Amino acid sequence: MKIEIDVADFAEKIKSGKGLSGKDGALTDLVRQITEMTLQAELESHLAQDLQKNRKNGYMSKTMRTEHGEFELETPRDRNGSFEPQIVKKSQTYLSDEIEKKMLSLFSLGSSYSQISEHIEDIYGVHFSKPAITTVTDKLIPMLEEWKIRPLDAIYPFIYLDAIHYKVREDGHYVSKAFYTVLGINLEGKKEILGLYLNESEGAKFWLQVLTDLQNRGVQDILIASVDGLKGFPEAINAVFPETEVQLCIVHQIRNSVKYIASKDQKIFVGELKSVYQAFTKEEAELALDKLESKWGKKYPIVFESWRNKWDNLSNYFKYPEPIRRIIYTTNIIESIHRQFRTLTKTKGAFPNDNSLLKLLFAGIRNAEKKWTMPIHNWSLTISQLNIFFKERLKDALGLGL
Predict the structure, then answer these.
(1) Are residues 193 and 74 part of one domain?
(2) What's an example GO BP annotation here (predicted)?
(3) Mean pLDDT of 278-287
(4) 345 and 264 part of one domain
(5) Is residue 174 classed as helix, strand or coil in its secondary structure?
(6) How far lies 358's CA from each of 166, 220, 399, in Å?
(7) pTM (predicted TM-score)
(8) What is the largest CA-CA distance in the chain?
(9) Which end of the chain has fewer surrounding CB within 10 Å, N or C?
(10) Is 192 in contact with 184 (CB distance < 8 Å)?
(11) Are 181 and 246 in contact (CB under 8 A)?
């Protein structure tokens, strides 16, 4: 079938000042003409190959949306109902994925459904309801499920583990849930979110499940894990990865200490505490901690009890040179990602279900990962220094084995 379009009508609309886009736009009508003619060609080809008695059976009208505007499309039907159009599927309501991509882009930046609807209508002259936008964003869910079980690298020099909390509706009321984030630095020095996990609350027991999942997906070794001061965290990590060194976040420890210091003493105490965590060696740090305790210990014993009980994991970073210290002494790198999550979700308040939260955070991660194309600062020196400390565990991964 030869497709012919009304070029004269198209030209006349342009001359008369009609816009290209929008419901009555010249280009919108041209797209409609081409689509309907192509559908006619598809039906005639189908009827020619159908050995049973079959023929045309009128049309079915439906609203189509495109980046140029929306129009009513007359879709031809056959008597037997065996015709399956290809250019526009039976359930399809828009022609290209341009609008869908724009929706997902806005969604990944934290725009609400109302903002997305308004933006799409301003650009394309096409209105989408909230349920229609939900249908588009729900396409992220199977992608998320596939992403969550993807194979991981065998070895990660560094990982960071932390949780962020959200309100999610469950059984008719809203409950607080912990969203677990695992950030890895791979052998190329690039950041990578290894997994997303959601649970009722943050705890070492669930972190054990998270780490087991990483192992099941191919992770064989982690050199250093940086975490906050959650009780039982180091034991959970070493239960799955016994050779992994666990570094507790110094920043978290300082924050927790300040909670127990009277406001009038906080500024002085924090200033003097620098002599501990900024020391050059572990020995110097221990002497500084002794001196600090002799001054403040009787007044704030709980603070020093915490530092003493956690000292083995707090002081691991002293054995390394500055480039490695800077990477592991704090979990700020993952907290910056959580700040991005909060920017995405700040207008949401609470979420109607788990998937509504997970798909939004997944969209944000996909957006962030587009920028993670370069290794972290000074990576060449860092990996060289790591090779000194972990030569046997790195030699095969770095291709240095004999």
Answers:
(1) no
(2) DNA transposition
(3) 96
(4) yes
(5) strand
(6) 11, 27, 37
(7) 0.75
(8) 99
(9) C
(10) yes
(11) no
